[in-house]
Design brief:
It contains 6 helices and 5 strands. It is of the alpha/beta class and 230 residues long. The protein is globular. This is Glucose-methanol-choline oxidoreductase N-terminal domain-containing protein. One of its GO terms (molecular function) is oxidoreductase activity, acting on CH-OH group of donors. It comes from Heliothis virescens. Belongs to the GMC oxidoreductase family.
Length: 230
């Protein structure tokens, strides 16, 4: 006789494991995806209200906690703890470093042309920009809707505070009647990063090695240096 209905637990209390970091990114000296313009023609544009002052804002606990809740996170100590985290980690060291550099002060129209436009400065987008910008004659533009990577993302133990925040796109899956049955609308939360680094910036530094077949397939397609062995 089993004390636990494992099938019921799987169906009701389900969570989505978002994709993990493919590789540790070390941008070359020529790729500078934080600037408005750089020596190699790589550009960065963002949709934002205030370039200098965007900060991480956590999930609104007041709106999320039910009335008279006994959940510890919804109590006074929970609010005090979250407020402390905001005070310590809501900023971005990248933004502070680059405040003294030439940045786009506001949105403006431009007639400048680019050879490649990459949408999203996540792990894939940054790698592609890095590779393409190796050719000096190519001009590359990277578009990112989010902010610089906030300091809170540098603390693995605080990864849960980024879910539902302003650096999470807030996607949910379609209800299928077999999973996340305890969640509102029976839809699983699907965290997607809205910042520099994309979803790899909110995965608490989880790492998974890429499949050998994928790398070798890329090399077979003519991408020298991309094989698993290389």
């Amino acid at each position: 006789m089993s004390f636990f209905d494992t099938e019921g637990l799987e169906q009701h209390f389900t969570a989505v494991l978002w994709h993990c970091l493919l590789a540790v990114l070390q941008p070359s000296g020529r790729t500078e995806p934080g600037y408005c313009s750089s020596r190699d023609g790589t550009g960065m544009a963002r949709q934002r209200d205030d370039t200098q002052k965007m900060q991480w804002q956590p999930l609104n606990l007041t709106a999320s906690c039910p009335a008279h809740s006994n959940i510890s996170a919804c109590g006074p100590l929970g609010f005090m703890y979250l407020n402390l985290i905001v005070q310590l980690y809501s900023g971005s060291k990248d933004a502070r470093i680059q405040e003294h550099l030439h940045r786009c002060p506001h949105e403006e129209d431009s007639d400048e042309e680019y050879d490649f436009i990459i949408v999203g400065a996540g792990a894939a987008g940054c790698v592609i920009a890095n590779r393409l910008s190796a050719f000096e004659k190519w001009k590359v533009l990277v578009l990112e809707a989010g902010m610089e990577q906030p300091d809170v993302s540098l603390v693995p133990g605080l990864y849960s505070t980024m879910q539902g925040s302003n650096v999470d796109w807030g996607y949910t899956t379609m209800p299928d009647g077999r999973s996340c049955l305890e969640r509102p609308g029976q839809a699983c939360s699907w965290p997607r990063g809205k910042m520099m680094g994309g979803s790899t910036s909110i995965n608490s530094y989880a790492y998974i090695r890429g499949n050998k077949l994928d790398y070798d397939k890329w090399a077979e397609m003519g991408n020298d240096g991309w094989s698993y062995k290389e």
